[in-house]
Specification:
Layout lengths: L1 E7 L2 H10 L7 E7 L17 E8 L8 H19 L4 E3 L3 E4 L2 E11 L10 E8 L19 H5 L5 H21 L1 H9 L8 E6 L2 E10 L5 E5 L4 E4 L3 E4 L1
Parallel strand pairs: 1-2
Antiparallel strand pairs: 2-3, 3-7, 4-5, 5-6, 6-7, 8-9, 8-12, 9-10, 10-11
Length: 243
């Protein structure tokens, strides 16, 4: 089932609300535009016309410790669909972005939904995806134009958003199921397309910034890097960026 809105604040907000109302797994909330799309660290996500903005509600028997892997699974799924649908080779930037070259083409935001009073006792996760598809760079705020891209800008072709949505929803559900079945295989797929691997990084947590070289993800989905002294660090919070 797909709930479509021409213009709303956030598909994730509506999907969370539906989860609390015991909506079934597989529900999709899609918007033509969002006025309050969000990304990592509660940053705003630009959502001009022509993009694909949706949230997929899944009810998964996944241990709490493995829930961060759902974000990684979603990145793998989106990357595979983009390659199959239009031949672009995206890289996945931990934890939740897809890049074409050095420009961002998609963002992911996964949120857990707890509803102890609900009739549906399966835990819910809302998977929000914002993908720049048929937009032009001129459709984005000027400050974002140097750092974003779209599938149209990369290929010169317009895509059918409904067909793309169907492909993405199926792929995300399939990869998310792998978290409980074979997370090691899933992480192996993710590592092949790691945007940060082997690159100079800076990690800032509070007033402390450490620099190092990207090493990929741990079994729990935390990003690892090695500093100049050879000490390995795992990123739990804070901000991780290219140095």
């Amino acid at each position: 089932m797909v709930l479509y809105f021409d213009h709303i604040d956030s598909t994730n907000r509506i999907a969370r609300q539906k989860a609390l109302e015991d909506a079934p797994s597989g529900l999709i909330v899609r918007a033509g535009r969002q006025s309050a799309g969000r990304g990592q660290y509660d940053r705003s996500f630009a959502s001009p016309d022509g993009g694909l903005y949706f949230s997929l509600l899944l009810r998964l028997a996944v241990p709490i410790a493995q829930l961060p892997l759902i974000t990684l699974a979603t990145g793998v799924a989106c990357r595979e669909v983009l390659f199959a649908a239009c031949g672009v080779e995206a890289k996945i930037k931990w934890p939740n972005d897809l890049y074409l070259g050095e420009r961002k083409v998609a963002g992911i935001l996964c949120e857990n939904v707890s509803n102890p009073a609900g009739k549906n006792d399966q835990p819910a996760v809302v998977i929000g995806v914002g993908l720049n598809v048929n937009s032009a760079l001129a459709d984005f705020p000027s400050e974002l134009q140097p750092i974003v891209t779209t599938l149209f800008e990369q290929t010169g072709q317009r895509m059918d958003l409904e067909k793309l949505l169907d492909l993405l929803a199926q792929a995300i559900a399939s990869k998310a199921a792998m978290v409980a079945i074979d997370s090691e295989l899933l992480l192996g797929e993710w590592q092949k397309h790691d945007y940060l691997h082997g690159r100079s990084l800076a990690h800032t947590a509070g007033n402390v910034t450490l620099q190092g070289i990207g090493m990929g993800v741990s079994a729990l989905g935390l990003y690892r890097f090695r500093d100049a002294a050879g000490v390995e660090h795992s990123v739990v919070g804070g901000q991780l960026r290219l140095a």
